[in-house]
Amino acid sequence: MMKATVRQQVTVPLRFTDGYTTPARVMTFDGLVDGKEHIALGLGDWQRALTKSAAGGRAPLVRPHSECMTGDVFGSLRCDCGPQLREAVERIAEQGGFLLYLRQEGRGIGLYAKLDAYALQDSGLDTYEANVALGHGEDERDYSAAAQMLFAVGADRVRLLSNNPDKALQLEKCGIDVTQQIPTGVHMSAANVRYLATKATHTSHTIELPLAE
């Protein structure tokens, strides 16, 4: 795999709408395989977490989070992306690690196509069927750049904060040692219950939805 390097680091104080605050060391990169402007956020005592991991201790907690403008920025209830992002930042800050913010909207199909997919979902298709109906793959995300970013910051061993088994498989194929996969919480609403259920049944996401009575 082509090597990427950290091109810049800057500290950014984060503040979420519920008042939670934490500083993040935001890193940009040169040499990413897809040429996109992904960033890594070093959270908590991430340097100590790397040192402990290098000595054979617990690996840093890492979440690769795919950009979702509708959920992350505007608080859309059609998905669980915004709450997952908020949860991940706090959990990683507590333990030391990285959030990789990956510019691959709509499972890699882009923002406009994602909104086209929403329109198809309103007519009855599920989230994966809608992508296919638009001529895309069910999920076009590639985590090669994420692996490059992890190698660049020295995190070749990680505990993965994700419900998606494909993230672990792709990172491991790129040479990242995923020592543990840790599920996020279940952020369910009336607007996203079908979306979450489809992720659980169709692509084996580790999402434990409450059973219907």
Order of neighbouring strands in the sheet with most strands? 1-2-3-5-4-6-7
Proportion of residues in extended strands: 15-25%
Mean pLDDT across residues: 90
- Give the fraction of residues assigned to helices: 25-40%
Q: What is the CATH-assigned architecture? A: 3-Layer(aba) Sandwich
Query: Would you state the CATH class?
Result: Alpha Beta
Distance between the termini: 50 Å
**Strand runs, count:** 7
Would you give the CATH topology?
Rossmann fold
**Number of self-contained structural domains:** 1
CATH superfamily descriptor: GTP cyclohydrolase II
Class based on secondary structure composition and strand pairing: alpha/beta
Radius of gyration: 17 Å
Sum up the overall morphology in one term.
globular
Keywords: GTP-binding, Hydrolase, Metal-binding, Nucleotide-binding, Riboflavin biosynthesis, Zinc
Enzyme class: hydrolase
GO biological process, one term: riboflavin biosynthetic process
Pathway: Cofactor biosynthesis; riboflavin biosynthesis; 5-amino-6-(D-ribitylamino)uracil from GTP: step 1/4
What does this structure look like?
This protein is of the alpha/beta class and 213 residues long. It has one domain: GTP cyclohydrolase II (Rossmann fold, 3-Layer(aba) Sandwich), CATH 3.40.50. 38% of the residues lie in helices and 23% in strands. It has a 7-stranded mixed β-sheet with strand order 1-2-3-5-4-6-7. The protein is globular, with a radius of gyration of 17 Å. The model has no long low-confidence stretch (mean pLDDT 90).
List keywords for this structure.
GTP binding, EC 3.5.4.25, 7 strands, GTP_cyclohydro_II, seven-stranded mixed β-sheet, Rossmann fold, 213 residues, RibA, alpha/beta
